[in-house]
From TrEMBL:
Source superkingdom: Bacteria
InterPro entries linked: DnaB/C_C, DnaD, DnaD-like_sf
Coiled coil (residue ranges): 341-368
PANTHER family per record: DNA REPLICATION PROTEIN (PTHR37293:SF5), PHAGE REPLICATION PROTEIN-RELATED (PTHR37293)
Protein name: DnaD domain protein
Keywords of the record: Coiled coil
Family classification: Belongs to the DnaB/DnaD family.
Annotated source species: Gallibacter intestinalis
Residue intervals of the DnaB/C C-terminal domain: 128-201, 221-276
């Protein structure tokens, strides 16, 4: 006698320990939970599963590091361990109850408590206490995991993280963990290790903001500077090393023209800089050339994404229909938001939910046709600034130096 062999993976069951559900699941970030469960399923089936396949199964973009962050998270809690490059799922029952008392794992009900050995060694416990005092509430599991992740991934110091929270909450009135994370990443990329370094930088940025406003007022404008205008003025201050008096003198020359503008002042100062240095800047990589190169690579990436999208539309016509339907929903969403009516919010929520379903359907179609889920997206050289040269904080992106080198070759 024998049973039929089951070939379809969906006909099997995946066993998840109750200890995991009760003690670990409730505090785990949703994405990390998905990684754990999907990988556990394939492990129980005896199938080989690397990071690339796991991302594809979960519809995660190829350049997203969520899988690696998930394994760091679960490894820190003792749910998995690494052996020769492989992920081993720990038997939680054996870990907690099968060993001698002195060998038992610490209770996993709290992420911070489970990491006390890390906290005691590096002073992180004081950092968490400081942050909770700034936030005026306890940190949740996701926030705690994110903060530990910043230390693991970016090498941020507890002092920098504490001050980033103080700056974001008290000055910027932002306490979202993702917003704070961007600030921490930006400061760490600049090499900041202490609060004093961050304070000096912020003071400099405040001074620079005043300088922008002063120049615009001299030109007759009462508005804030655009990002492009800031980049141009940075050249005057940093590259040309002009004093405020000299820049204001150049601005005064706009009084004789009918339409005062930044480009006119820039031309004046560029000519003055040539006279000052005695150099002909033809052939040199200027701010303008780097800006043009950014425009070139950004437009190229967007054009290639459009071509890939047309390729997918031809191969999978249903995706074109779904995309068009989603665009129509966005138009309806805008009209609904601008309009009135008692059921306005209900209609908006319905349209948003419909678009969410459409996006999931598109991901499913791409996966079924062995097309990466991010195939139609724009592949910028720098996802941080999306090839604009400026970050969300309005500061020059860390990729600028590399783009400057590339612009020198592109210019030739």
């Amino acid at each position: 006698m024998k049973r039929d062999k089951i070939y379809n993976e969906y006909m099997f069951d995946t066993k998840v320990e109750n200890i995991f559900i009760n003690e670990y699941m409730k505090d785990a970030p949703a994405d990390f939970l998905k990684v754990y469960l999907m990988a556990l399923m394939f492990t129980d089936l005896g199938k080989e599963m690397d990071e690339e396949k796991l991302k594809k199964s979960l519809g995660i973009a190829a350049d997203d590091d969520v899988v690696e962050r998930a394994w760091k998270y679960w490894e820190r809690l003792g749910v998995v361990r690494r052996e020769k490059g492989e992920i081993v799922f720990v038997s939680l029952k054996e870990s907690l109850y099968g060993k001698k008392k002195s060998e038992k794992q610490k209770a996993p009900s709290d992420v911070v408590e489970a990491s006390l050995h890390i906290l005691d060694d590096s002073g992180l416990k004081a950092m968490f206490t400081s942050i909770e005092k700034i936030m005026n509430r306890p940190l949740n599991g996701r926030e705690t995991e994110s903060i530990l992740g910043w230390i693991d991934v970016t090498g941020a110091t507890p002092e920098i993280i504490s001050y980033a929270y103080k700056y974001c909450v008290e000055t910027m009135k932002k306490e979202n963990v993702n917003y704070v994370g961007k600030v921490v990443e930006s400061w760490t990329n600049k090499g900041f290790r202490s609060r004093a370094q961050a304070e000096e930088y912020l003071e400099e940025m405040d001074n620079r903001h005043y300088m922008y406003k002063r120049v615009l007022r001299a030109m007759g404008f009462s508005r804030n500077a655009t990002e492009n205008e800031k980049a141009i003025m940075d050249t005057w201050f940093d590259d040309f090393d002009f004093s405020m008096d000299m820049i204001l003198e150049a601005c005064a020359k706009t009084s004789g023209i009918s339409n005062p503008n930044m480009n006119y002042v820039n031309t004046v100062l560029m000519n003055w800089n040539k006279e000052k240095t005695g150099k002909d800047e033809t052939g040199e990589v200027t701010q303008k050339h780097v800006g043009e190169y950014y425009d070139f690579i950004r437009e190229k990436a967007e054009r290639e994404a459009k071509e890939r999208k047309e390729e997918v539309y031809t191969a999978i016509p249903e995706i074109k229909k779904l995309d068009d339907q989603m665009k129509n929903n966005y138009i309806s969403l805008t009209k609904t938001a601008l309009g009135g009516g008692a059921d306005k919010n209900e209609a908006m929520n319905r349209l948003k939910a419909e678009n969410d379903k459409i996006r999931e359907r598109i991901k499913m179609l791409l996966t079924e046709n062995r097309v990466p889920v991010d195939y139609m997206e724009v592949r910028y050289k720098c996802p941080l600034c999306k090839d604009t040269g400026m970050t969300d904080e309005g500061i020059r992106c860390q990729c600028y130096i590399e783009r400057e080198k590339e612009a020198a070759q592109w210019q030739k």
